[in-house]
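Re: the multi-chain job from yesterday

Posting the exact lines I submitted so nobody has to dig through the queue logs.
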Amino acid sequence: MKNKINIYLIEYAINAILRQKYKSIFITTIFTLLVFLLSSIFFITNSIKYELNSTVDALPEIIVQKVKAGRHYDMDGDSIDSILSISGVSDAVARVWGYYYFENAGVNFSIVGVDSYEKQYKDSLANIVEKFDLESDKPSMIIGSGVRDVMNQNYYKDYFNFIKPDGTLKRVEIAGVFDGDTNLESNDMIVMSKDLVRDIFDIAESKASDIVVKVPNPDEVPTVVSKIKILYPDSRIITSEDLKVSYQNIFDYKSGVFLALFVVSLFTFFIIIYDKASGLSSEEKKEIGVLKAIGWRVDDVMKEKFYEAFIISFFAYTLGVALALAFVYIFQAPILQNIFIGYSQLKTNFELPFILDIQTLFLVFFLSVPIYIAATIIPSWRVATLEADEVIR
Amino acid sequence: MNKKSKTTFYVFVSLFSLVFVELLYLSYAKTLSKDSLDKKIDFIKLAQLPDLAISTESSYIRHRSLSTIGSIYKDDGSLREYFPSTFAISPSHTINKENQ
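And the result, structure tokens for all chains:
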């Protein structure tokens, strides 16, 4: 029963931790903060990615844009007919949408036109719109809650005056506000009829911002894409598969804030490691020497050091993860969230959906605990292999 | 087992139960519910536009999947990234897909 855990060694390890109280507290605090910071960021990015991926399948399979001189241009509406004639395509819709810059508040609204939204979408609209009120014949729109807040601050309660390119005003009534559950998607959106969007942006009847194509069979998407590409060589085609791939690396770990955070936290961690690995204090060396003199073997010393390092690092890891879970999902990551939101005037009020990602937990675990244990054991091993009298002297 | 070992043991047990209770609570209360997921999908079907409204400062971050090669240069010809959100959110990698 040589492999049995020796409870006396564990007791000795606990005593050793408590003997160096301040050093242990310091290391535990830094370690906990490091784990907390790393796992908080991973939790936030995981939740946002989860949110993106859970709705990506509801999007049309193919989006066709026209690119001219490296810029996005309006397409000809007639293109739809030739795209519809490609076999495998079940539907193609010319979309009209764009950004409206509201100068008073300095914010951008995304305005989307839909086909006579009053009739076709009434059922699904009733599901996602609060205070739906659409009885008048006046031009009307449905807005996201962020847009409503900005408009309210500028004294537009029931309607909004859009300034058209020629300088005239277009008054549009607010018919409803999108449900708070869709905040992450709808915060800056305004949905209105296509004719109204054309009027506000001055887009001709024959033009469209882009074309969305529905292909029921996913295996046929690449063929349809290449056919569209042959028909319209100046087009840029985005498939929902492309979107999924691009969401994989939506957060740029290579630059900016992430790099800064990683560098700072890893640097702190390596200072601890360096401090530990650069050699033990004379007191710790003496301790190992005394232990060897009274009959401890090298592996006993190393086991004891392992327990010591494991208790500290595992305690700090668990505490860090517990704090990060509470910080991100219960308190909604107060300061860290701003990294992702930026300083945009149109603040989004959203709840991060909880998603347990075991991989992240393992990643943070293997980034921290084994490295710390190794940094504790290796110098102890160096001392423990020396002769006892040499160490004590 | 002496008193200190017992205390250590209890500290670890309570930490684990804390994490466990947290996970239970979060998976019960904070997971994306079927109802709100349906609403999100309904909205996406209506608007048919991808991406989240977490940062609306610039079009190539707001609708990053739809931004074109020129969108990044539109705001500034020298590609100066003056929107803080670009430090965290990368431009779409579908832009220069062929070159990768």
